[in-house]
Design a protein that fits this description.
Helix 2 packs across helix 7, helix 3 packs across helix 4 and helix 10 packs across helix 11. Helices cover 39% and strands 23% of the residues. The protein contains 16 helices and 22 strands. The radius of gyration is 23 Å and the shape is globular. The longest helix has 18 residues. A 7-stranded mixed sheet has the order 14-15-16-13-12-18-19, sandwiched between helices. Strands 9-8-7-10-11-21 form a 6-stranded mixed sheet, with helices on both faces. Helix 10 links the parallel strand 12 and strand 13. Bound molecules: nicotinamide-adenine-dinucleotide. Pathway: Polyol metabolism; myo-inositol degradation into acetyl-CoA; acetyl-CoA from myo-inositol: step 7/7. This is Malonate-semialdehyde dehydrogenase. It comes from Sulfoacidibacillus thermotolerans (Acidibacillus sulfuroxidans).
Length: 485
């Protein structure tokens, strides 16, 4: 029932307009179970309105001098910094993550805007004055046109900021379809961009779920689609967008492994893994889901992890002392509980049971304490599937080769970490592991805005990744001119 809730509007051509459909989905505060707003479930007709607005804005935006576009990005960066605390609180409200995690997420979003503000350099072409006698060649860079972004619930600020600031800085106009579960941040991001001087129609927001997504994927005038979300949807978006002639980059799910060697700094490993496994309630694509302990370190490591997990304060993330907030929805908590039951029946040893934490018994709010399984094997579902919750699997092997072989068996290959001070082990890990984002003695090796976010295998569908030079290539097309002068 969403009848008394404020239904969010779409943002099209600089105006907040109601969606055509009166179907909605409630937006909850996951810490209290309270319904705070309703997301309209837009249709392809809403998407089409946004495309027409974006198309007409493209005519002048694409011709706006690049330094002038960049100046709006600089102003936007200032406004985001000024509203940092407000944005972080909004992330916590709709996503549930702790204030500290939310604050860090806002920082990551701002860094993307800072990178995009370098558009005058990023948009440069190149030339060779002497390709033959009295002949020269030059490459010019242009925007692609109307482009769209479809984003997940787990980073309502950072992930949209992977997309629209750079796309817009490159001269494109943009349609954002935020997660229906965390739509509020997108609204605020658009308001602040408008305040920074962004012309109407350059950034548009269409709320909704699969109907809106299909409207984007099938629309002939959308040239490129950036997607971040779960693996099956990423694959679907990749295939369908490509079938409709679009560029597509689709970032998908993960099951990241952390290898701990016997010489590792135990305290550092426990601290980093605890933050990576249970931070943001395990709802990070770079979360540590599996620890592979090599040799004798397994016992003290398990002991340390159990102790550190039990010391985490669980609760409403808006309380600044809380470290572990709720998962996103009741259904997600129930799904996670099923995975824990499955882990037990498949023979893993439950070292710490998050179902027994006091907070997990609270009826309102979707809390689950940190859960740790030992004796996990690659046959088990808890090893194979992305659980996306505060559940950590621990395995024990005798050698680094075995640890790498286990990680490489996963269908996913987003990130992988190693804790050791042994240079040749680090080199071996770097050369042999199948994953796109590696960490050495750190828990969450998420690359910064000026490098690509570089998942492999089923963690990514496409060619050019988001961020860095990849992002610039994705959001631009090139013209080559060869001249005899
Ligand atoms: P999700 O796939 O449920 O939703 C992502 C987007 O797709 C949303 O906007 C949603 O409305 C839309 N969508 C959902 N089902 C759809 C369908 N059937 N047809 C068309 N559109 C649909 O993902 P989520 O639960 O919001 O986010 C969590 C997932 O995102 C995890 O798997 C996580 O690993 C992944 N993720 C990956 C990265 C990365 O960089 N690889 C980053 C963040 C999150």
């Amino acid at each position: 029932m969403t009848e008394n809730l404020r239904v969010l509007s779409n943002f099209i051509g600089g105006k907040w307009v109601p969606a055509y459909s009166d179907k909605t989905e409630p937006v909850y505060n996951p810490a209290t179970g309270e319904k705070i707003h309703a997301t309209p479930l837009s249709t392809p007709a809403d998407v089409n309105d946004a495309v027409q607005a974006a198309k007409s804005a493209f005519v002048s935006w694409s011709k706006t001098p690049v330094p002038r576009r960049a100046r709006i990005l600089f102003k936007y960066q200032q406004l985001l910094v000024e509203h940092w605390d407000e944005l972080a609180r909004l992330v916590t409200l709709e996503n549930g993550k702790s204030y500290d995690d939310a604050y860090g997420e806002v920082q990551r979003g701002i860094e993307n805007v800072e990178f995009a503000a370098g558009a005058p350099t990023l948009m440069m072409g190149s030339q060779l004055p002497d390709i033959a006698t009295q002949m020269e060649s030059a490459m010019y860079r242009y925007p692609v046109g109307v482009v769209a972004g479809i984003t997940p619930f787990n980073f309502p600020m950072m992930v949209p900021c992977w997309m629209f600031p750079l796309a817009i800085a490159c001269g494109n106009t943009f349609i954002l379809k935020p997660s229906e579960r965390t739509p509020l941040l997108a609204q605020r991001l658009a308001e602040l961009f408008t305040l920074a001087g962004l012309p109407d129609g350059v950034l548009n927001i269409v709320h909704g779920t699969h109907d809106a997504v299909n409207g984007i994927l099938e629309h002939p005038e959308i040239r490129a689609v950036s997607f971040v979300g779960s693996q099956p949807v990423a694959k679907y978006v990749y295939e369908k967008a490509a079938a409709h002639g679009k560029r597509v980059q689709a970032l998908a799910g993960a099951k990241n492994h952390t290898i701990v060697l016997p010489d590792a700094d135990l305290e550092e490993a426990v601290r980093g893994i605890t933050a990576a496994a249970f931070g943001s309630a395990g709802e990070r694509c770079m979360a540590c889901a599996v620890v592979v302990a090599v040799g004798d370190i397994a016992e003290p490591l398990l002991e340390g992890l159990q102790k550190a997990a039990s010391a985490l304060k669980i609760g409403d993330g808006s309380d600044r002392s809380v470290q572990l907030g709720p998962v996103i929805r009741k259904a997600h908590k129930e799904r996670t509980v099923k995975y824990i039951e499955r882990g037990e029946t498949e023979g893993a040893t439950l070292i710490r049971d998050g179902r027994e934490d006091q907070a997990a018994a609270v009826e309102k709010g979707y809390f689950l304490g940190p859960t740790i399984f030992a004796d996990v094997t690659t046959e088990m579902t808890i090893w194979k599937d992305e659980i996306f919750a505060p559940v950590l699997s621990v395995m024990k092997v005798d050698t680094l080769d075995e640890a790498i072989a286990i990680a490489n068996q996963s269908d996913f290959a987003n990130g992988a970490c190693i804790y050791t001070n042994n240079a040749s082990a680090i080199r071996k890990f770097r050369e042999e592991i199948d994953a796109g984002m590696l960490g050495v003695n750190i828990g969450v090796p998420a690359p910064m805005a000026f490098f690509p976010f570089s998942g492999w295998k089923n963690s990514f569908y496409g060619d050019l990744h988001v961020n860095g030079r990849d992002g610039v290539e994705f959001y631009t097309r090139r013209k080559m001119i060869t001249s005899r002068l």
